[in-house]
Amino acid sequence: MDKQMIRLTSRQLAVVLVVTLSPSPMGWSAAHGQDHQAHSAPAAPETAPHLVVSPPLAGPLSRGLAVIAFRTENLKIMPVYGEAATQVIPRLGHLHVTVDGGPWHWLHASDEPIVVQGLPPGPHRVLIELAAANHKILDAQTLNFEITLTVSDAPK
């Protein structure tokens, strides 16, 4: 009895599939992409992503802490990576941050300011690169600044 019930269900499913996949009655046609191509607007060229970086905040800088605010244009910062993510709209990406020309960088994937802690007194350079989800560099900004400790901050 269970087999008949399954067979009956299979037949019903087959009938539904045949009806669904067969040409529509009364000359109706199913909508196809090519039927509507004339109605779609041509794709607008994408505007290039841009990175805008502010100088480090002065107060924390006097204590050896660089707090760097930034914003992006035509790209949203998110922790999403890989070739498939390059096809997403809006465009997604992240930042690569390199301090003082070091041999390595770290990835920054949030809209929060970049924070670099424990910098010694003296001149410093921070390279901030705007990268697509596949790590291709799209824009870059370099910040040069100096940390000078005040007398009250000097070691005793």
Give a verbal description of the structure:
The protein is an alpha+beta fold and 156 residues long. It has a domain at 50-153: Immunoglobulins (Immunoglobulin-like). The chain contains two helices and nine strands, in the order αβαββββββββ. The strands form three sheets. Strands 4, 5, 6, 8 and 9 form a five-stranded mixed sheet that branches. The longest helix has 20 residues, at 2-21. The radius of gyration is 29 Å and the shape is elongated.
Summarize this, please?
The protein has 2 helices and 9 strands, in the order αβαββββββββ. The chain is an alpha+beta fold and 156 residues long. The strands form 3 sheets. Strands 4, 5, 6, 8 and 9 form a 5-stranded mixed β-sheet that branches. It has a two-stranded antiparallel sheet with strand order 1-3.
The CATH superfamily of the domain at 50-153 appears as: Immunoglobulins
| Tally of helical runs | 2
Give the CATH class of the domain at 50-153.
Mainly Beta
Low-confidence parts? 1-29, 35-43
**Beta-strand residue percentage:** 25-35%
SS-derived structural category: alpha+beta
Quantity of strands, as a count: 9
CATH topology of the domain at 50-153: Immunoglobulin-like
Distance between the termini: 92 Å
CATH architectural group of the domain at 50-153: Sandwich
Overall geometric form:
elongated
Helicity level, as a percent range? 10-25%
Q: Major β-sheet, in short?
A: 5 strands, mixed
Our Rg estimate from Cα atoms comes to: 29 Å
Q: Write the H/E string, N to C.
A: HEHEEEEEEEE
Q: Mean pLDDT, as a whole number?
A: 79
Layout of strands and helices, then pairs:
Layout: H1 2-21, E1 50-53, H2 58-61, E2 66-68, E3 70-73, E4 76-77, E5 92-99, E6 106-108, E7 114-116, E8 122-132, E9 137-147
Parallel strand pairs: 4-5
Antiparallel strand pairs: 1-3, 2-7, 5-6, 5-8, 8-9
